[in-house]
Amino acid sequence: MLDPTHLRSFATVARLLSFTKASEHLGIQQSTVSQHVRKLEATVGRTLLVRDTHSVALTPDGETMLNFAGSILDTTERAIAHFRGPQVRGRLRFGLSEDLVLSRLPSILTDFRRRHPLVDLELTVGLGDSLRQLAHNGELDLVFAKRSAGQTDGVPVWRDRFVWVCGRELPSLGADDPVPLVCFPPPSSSRAAVIAALEAAGRPWRLACTSGSLSGLHAAALAGLGVVAHAETLVPAGLTPVPAKAALPPLPWFEFALSSGGHAFNGPGAALADTILSSADRLRSGD
Fold first, then answer.
1. What DSSP designation does 167 have?
2. pTM for the whole thing?
3. Neighbours of 78 (CB within 10 A)
4. Domain residue limits, the chain
5. Which CATH superfamily hosts domain 160-253?
6. How many whole angstroms separate alpha carbon 156 and alpha carbon 126?
7. Within 10 Å of residue 79's Cβ, how many Cβ atoms?
8. Are strands 205-210 and 90-97 parallel, antiparallel or unpaired?
9. What is the pLDDT along the chain (287 residues), one digit of tens a residue?
């Protein structure tokens, strides 16, 4: 039998790639987390994590186990919630970045509402920096959005990177041509990242389309108006990598993270944060 406690410790280490951060998140000793992972490895007879003093990495067996762990923990949580009855209630003002609207998150929110029918969920969709400011002002309880390198507020869910994508109707773009940008208005981390990358490379650019909605950006890109910087794991159907001949500069990494304006997660916010963290592999893969 696979112990859910061992699976939760393993999944947390695998997500954060750190035993120290995992122990802080779970509220248990680092030695206990290590013991849980060793017992899980002993149960399945496989090495799941490769670790040294500086890094932690998943083995191929670890990647497979992470998928199983997510399913097992999700089923366990749903069973416990069903038989114990609803424990969480109250109002939850949740801020969600545009990037995540077309991911698997809506189905995860549906599961959350089914498990916690006494939670009054209010959803606000917008740009990450604006949502975090609302949380800081006490107008949102929980925010799930991108955070740029150097930002440390909140809890990381997964690491991603921006990639250049476009629609099939984009006119030929050469290495010396001004880059037509399709992007969010400021404040936007993707907008800031692409402009900084282009200017650092000395590449001319122009704004071809600005839209506050992701659907607007997708429509403009599909019509061939310009190129978009998009989270690599969440690129929607119809958009493809910009051809290499365009010689666009590489774009930075970032993280999708949960934050609450500097306050501790509690009540409905803590319950939704745990649900999202335990579903990170589903969100990242889109399966």
1. -
2. 0.67
3. 13
4. 4-84, 90-158+255-285, 160-253
5. Periplasmic binding protein-like II (3.40.190.10)
6. 19
7. 10
8. unpaired
9. 889 999 999 999 998 899 998 998 888 999 999 999 999 999 999 999 998 878 899 999 999 999 899 888 888 877 776 666 556 789 999 999 988 887 778 888 888 888 888 899 999 998 888 999 999 999 999 999 998 877 777 888 888 899 999 999 898 899 999 999 999 998 888 899 999 999 999 999 999 999 988 889 999 999 999 999 999 988 888 899 999 999 999 999 998 999 988 777 888 999 899 889 888 877 775 54
In order of 26, 91, 164, the CA distances from 183 in angstroms are 38, 33, 11
- Residue 121, beta-bridge partner list: 92
Do 90-158+255-285 and 160-253 fold alike per CATH? yes
Q: Kindly state which CATH superfamily the domain 90-158+255-285 is placed in.
A: Periplasmic binding protein-like II (3.40.190.10)
Provide the 3-class DSSP secondary structure of residue 52. Answer: coil
Enter the tokens of residue 157: 């869910």
Partners of 241 in the β-ladder: 165
> Partners of 207 in the beta sheet?
181
Q: Dihedral of the CA atoms 131, 132, 133, 138 (nearest 10)?
A: 90
Strand, helix or coil at 15? Answer: helix
